[in-house]
TrEMBL record:
NCBIfam families cross-referenced by the UniProt entry: PRK08183.1
Residue ranges, annotated region (Disordered): 105-129
Identification of the protein by name: NADH:ubiquinone oxidoreductase subunit NDUFA12
Lineage start: Bacteria, Pseudomonadati, Pseudomonadota, Alphaproteobacteria, Sphingomonadales
InterPro entries per record: NDUFA12
Length: 129
């Protein structure tokens, strides 16, 4: 069922159409630590794209590869960017909608208690005419 799903979907890797176009017109230029594969058009190097290793989520593309995809840097990230500093954290994907997403303490999903009102709030009521 996995190969059949890729025939008609784009959100979990490359569809057949994308795979065929990539083989005909693309040249693989690199891979990142998440397994995403990056391509450049054989005839037009300004056209660049990625085939994701899992779900198609742009937040899983590391910042260096984002810069390359958008044309901010011409060289591949290993050559066009300085090495990561020891104090820099590794990028993480967008966690919105997952169980690891941040929620404020007063949220219904949060574990904390919502603070009580301070008593300085009074609800607005319209003046009767």
């Amino acid at each position: 069922m996995g190969w059949l799903a890729n025939a008609f979907t784009w959100w979990n890797g490359a569809s057949w159409g994308t795979s065929i176009t990539t083989r005909r017109h693309g040249r693989e230029v690199g891979r990142d630590e998440a397994g995403n594969v990056y391509f450049q058009h054989k005839d037009n190097p300004a056209r660049r794209w990625v085939i994701y290793a899992g779900n198609n989520d742009g937040s899983v593309v590391p910042p260096g590869w984002q810069s390359w995809l958008r044309g901010t840097i011409d060289d591949l990230p290993e050559k066009g960017l300085p090495t990561r500093r020891t104090w820099e954290k590794a990028p993480i994907a967008n966690l919105t909608g997952s169980g690891e997403a941040w929620v404020p303490s007063g949220s219904l999903r949060g574990l904390g208690e919502r603070p009580a009102t301070t008593g300085d709030y009074s609800a607005w009521t319209p003046d009767e005419a």
